[in-house]
């Protein structure tokens, strides 16, 4: 008896399009809500700018930009972790430490 692997490419395409559509609805709704709220209450947005700090915004941007490639690097080094050649996470920036601890904890199991 021959066993053939079932691959549902049409179902996968439909699932991806449904995912993209739901993301569009979610984020589109959030942007519309932001625009309506900002148009109806401009004084609150003007007042809120005094509580913002450009240094924290810059730090947040660096953390987000720096964490993405390091998380990807951690995923690419997964086979090295499974082969027993270290945890595969370079704990360079603080934004990487949660990903590194998660990666290292999985390699100990």
Brief characterization of the structure:
This protein has 109 residues and is mostly helical. 72% of the residues lie in helices and 0% in strands.
Topology, element by element:
Layout: H1 9-40, H2 42-48, H3 54-76, H4 78-82, H5 97-107
Explain what this protein looks like in three dimensions.
- With 109 residues, this protein is mainly α.
- The chain folds into two domains: 9-52; 67-109, no CATH class.
- It contains five helices and no strands.
- The longest helix has 32 residues, at 9-40.
- The chain is flat, with a radius of gyration of 22 Å.
Search tags:
109 residues; mainly alpha; 2 domains; 5 helices; 72% helix; 0% strand; disordered C terminus
Give me the secondary-structure category.
mainly alpha
User: How many structural domains does the protein architecture include?
Assistant: 2
Flag low-confidence runs.
Answer: 101-109
Taking Cα atoms only, what radius of gyration do you get, to the nearest Å?
Answer: 22 Å
What proportion of the residues form beta strands (DSSP E)? Answer: under 5%
What is the distance, rounded to the nearest whole angstrom, between the alpha carbons of the first and last residues? Answer: 38 Å
Q: Give the topology string: H per helix, E per strand.
A: HHHHH
Proportion of helical residues: over 70%
Query: What's the rounded overall pLDDT mean?
Result: 79
Global shape = flat
Report the sheet with the most strands, covering strand number, pairing sense and barrel closure. none
Enumerate how many helices there are, as a single number.
5
| Assembly state of the chains shown | single chain
Number of strands: 0
């Amino acid at each position: 008896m021959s066993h053939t692997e079932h691959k549902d490419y049409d179902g996968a395409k439909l699932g991806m399009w449904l995912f993209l559509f739901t993301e569009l609805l979610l984020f589109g709704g959030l942007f519309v809500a932001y625009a309506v709220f900002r148009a109806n209450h401009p004084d609150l947005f003007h007042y809120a700018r005094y509580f913002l700090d450009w240094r924290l915004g810059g730090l947040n941007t660096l953390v987000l930009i720096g964490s993405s490639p390091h998380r990807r690097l951690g995923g690419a080094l997964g086979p090295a972790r499974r082969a027993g050649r270290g945890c595969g996470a370079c704990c360079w920036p603080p934004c990487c430490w949660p990903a590194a601890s998660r990666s290292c904890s999985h390699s100990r199991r």
